[in-house]
Amino acid sequence: MAGNSQRKGATRKPGTKKGAVVGSGGQRRRGLEPKGSTPPKEERDYHPAARKARAAAKRADSPARSGGSSAPRSRRTTKDGGEYVAGRNSVVEALRAVVPATALYVQSRLDSDDRVREALKLATERRIPLIETTKIDLDRMTDRSVHQGLLLTVPPYEYADLDELLGEIEASGDVPLLIALDGVTDPRNLGAVVRSAAAFGAHGVVIPERRAAGMTAAAWKVSAGAAARVPVVRVTNLTRALVTLQEVEGATVVGLAADGGTTVRDIDRDLVKGPLVLVVGSEGKGLSRLVGETCDVRASIPMISTVESLNAGVAAGIALYAVADARSR
Question: Last residue of some domain: 133, 154, 175?
Answer without folding.
Answer: 154
